[in-house]
Amino acid sequence: MHLPQPDPAVLSNKERIVRRLREVLPEDAVIDDPSETRAYECDGLSAYRCPPLAAILPRTTAEVSAALRICHEERVPVVPRGSGTSLAGGALPTADCVVLGIARMNRVLEVDYPNRFVRVEAGRTNLSVTGAVESDGFFYAPDPSSQLACAIAGNIAMNSGGAHCLKYGVTTNNLLGVTLVLMDGTVVELGGAQMDSGGLDLLGVVCGSEGQLGVVTEAVLRILPKPEGARPVLIAFGSNEVAGACVADIIKAGVLPVAIEFMDRPCIRACEDFAHAGYPDCEALLIVEVEGSPAEIDEQLGLIRQIATRHDPLEFRESGSEAESAKIWLGRKSAFGAMGQINDYMCLDGTIPVSALPEVLRRIAEMSRDYGLDVANVFHAGDGNMHPLILFDANRPGDLERCESLGAAILKLCVELGGCLTGEHGVGIEKRDLMTVQFSPQDMEAQMWVKDVFDPKWLLNPAKVFPLSVSAGRRAA
Amino acid sequence: MRVSDEAELADAVRAAKGPLIVRGGGTRDIGCPVAGAVIETSGLTGIRLYEPGALTLVAGAGTPLAEIEAALASEGQRLAFEPADWSALLGSQGTPTLGGMVAANASGPRRVQAGACRDSLLGVRFVDGAGTIIKNGGRVMKNVTGYDLARLMAGSWGTLGVLSEVSLKVLPAAETSATLVLPGLTVANAVAALSAALSSPYDITGAAFLPGTGALVRVEGFAGSVAYRAGRLETLLSPHGEVHRAENGAALWRQVAEVTPFHGRDGDVWRFSLKPSEAPEVANRLGQQVMLDWGGGLLWALMPEGTDARALARPYHGHATLVRAATETRARLSVFEPEAPAVAAITKGIRARFDPRGILNPGRMG
């Protein structure tokens, strides 16, 4: 993975740049000591690291605006950072950049139940948005696995999803408005408390633009009344194919569970060793969760049982209590931790048409043998968003490179079968050089037009999303 | 000029010497008047892919909406956002197409629960103003690869490109539904009742106010669940007034979606997208008959011809569209809400890149 050569002019102007930032920001909001900037050298894709020129931690939209105006004048690249949980390297710095951390902007500004929205500063963590409204019976729906730590700003940048988006959608479906600071310091409001906005859907294109169009400082988020209850079932199968067919049948039958999670044997075994959730010994396992009143849940689970029975499950385990529900989810929720105990791993994020599930799993198994690296699969089956975990040993020379090339091969397979490179993590640097597999030069050109408009000098997170060779002319401009 | 495939469409746009009026079924003549040669997409038809088990449908942009809805119904599925036919409201002929629906981001009453058309949009293919074919998104339900231009195309009224193909997420149709009616409420009381319903855990799929009928609340799903939720809602809403079950629920929701109260009546039709709690005050300031959808977040008003409803309605958070009016009124009052200068500059920049010669429905969005 390559990053552009740092701009020598910026490096040599460091002292002036930092001094100017200190003029508009409080003393504790500018970090330039190399021992401290190190804290910002990487995000969740920790295989890649590079300390930035400086990091700034503004507390207000006005401070963000003033700082960006200076960086714009000094032609300093800016890498926005929420909580730094990106698995795609979305917040990875370059040596000549200023990291703009939004974490100190974490207040709830407005809670409006009659209109069912909250307005928050974008550094607020995902889970604490729900935390602010749950005692009144509401919640914020998108629930990425990192929700305890990840910031709304990062969720908006990557258009994050989660386990429950089969029913509730991803960030873009739950985002009503943003306050966005452009690279030149201009503050714009897009959307608002109303359900849709007039004019072009600029909010829609800002969501998922990986911090390349502007810095989101505030967000208006739709909140929903909490369902009366939820209950999972665990269904075990003797093969991936049968489990995949069962998923399609559940969806076709008109039941819309809030989540359908799929785990294959390597994943089940690792989770079992780690979390002792009592999962059955099987090839494939589904966790299906439905919501409603107890009677509504019974009605839906009855239907799911009928469908599953037609596929001869090895086991159909219905939860009878809160404790049993928690146990069913325990293994799934600790999947990533379990993998981390055994090995270094790389988590992929391709999406495939649900109908291609059995074929993709079969071919991933073949590739895993060819590359000599184990792959465990855990994913959101209802929407085809796969998370193959490739296990490798970072201390063994050549293993990371082999892992990356297996990852690339799997993602190419996803695209070949009608899917895409990333379902919810974003492109970042991780999938940047694979963009040409999914998009023609014209397709990427049209996307880059949007960045040309929002950030004409290409200073915001410039080395991400588009292959460096594709964005070269613009970044140099 | 009628094109029969995407390549012909690209050729036609590339060869155009002047402004083009992009036309699907021609049922939604909304926007500032445009002069130019008509380019029709009605030849770009056909369902390319429909996988009920994956909740996915891909079809040519010129495919009639009715054909899509029939194909979905045969598998017990539907477009969740309930796109409405506005031809009776606008007095237009023809049949709505898939591309027109996306270009207008046309969404009906279920928008409160299932999102708008743009929320079900998985991907697009389109021809930009230079005649280049561009694709974005795809056919899978979760996709964050690159920028989301599909959503940018939704509601862009053919001003950034001519859609040739769209892919949509579809959903199971409900087994049954129930509609509760609270007759005789004021606008303010109706909004309060709708807000109470939408803040309940009973998964409301419609929350409207139909003049002459009252406040309407809809639940959908499996029979047992619908019976349960409708019963709970009756209790919940009883402090707001008399509650009864509608026998003609489907017809009432069609009236809401198609804005039936204003059909064939003189006057201009305005559509306000608002914070729901603002609807009663805006209705008061307008001083005319209104219809509400989306729990009050969407307000339709029938105004005397030539009235600047925005000026009367202020202050409000949101935006207003002049949906139906004489040509000179539309030119004078701006059909779409004027944008703040910084936003307008971004819009202008995006138009200049997607349509460098300014030939696609020029000026239609103001």
TrEMBL record, chain A:
Domain of life: Bacteria
Pfam families membership: FAD-oxidase_C, FAD_binding_4
Organism, scientific name: Albidovulum marisflavi
Cofactor(s) for this UniProt protein: FAD
Domain (FAD-binding PCMH-type) ranges: 48-226
Protein name: FAD-binding protein
Keywords, ordered alphabetically: FAD, Flavoprotein, Oxidoreductase
Keyword Isomerase (UniProt): no
Automatic annotation (TrEMBL), chain B:
Keyword Oxidoreductase in record: yes
One Gene Ontology MF term: glycolate dehydrogenase activity
Cross-referenced Gene3D superfamilies: 3.30.465.10
Keywords linked to the UniProt accession: FAD, Flavoprotein, Oxidoreductase
Keyword Flavoprotein: yes
Domain FAD-binding PCMH-type: 1-173
Taxonomic superkingdom: Bacteria
Protein name as it appears in the record: Glycolate oxidase subunit GlcE
Organism whose genome encodes this protein: Albidovulum marisflavi
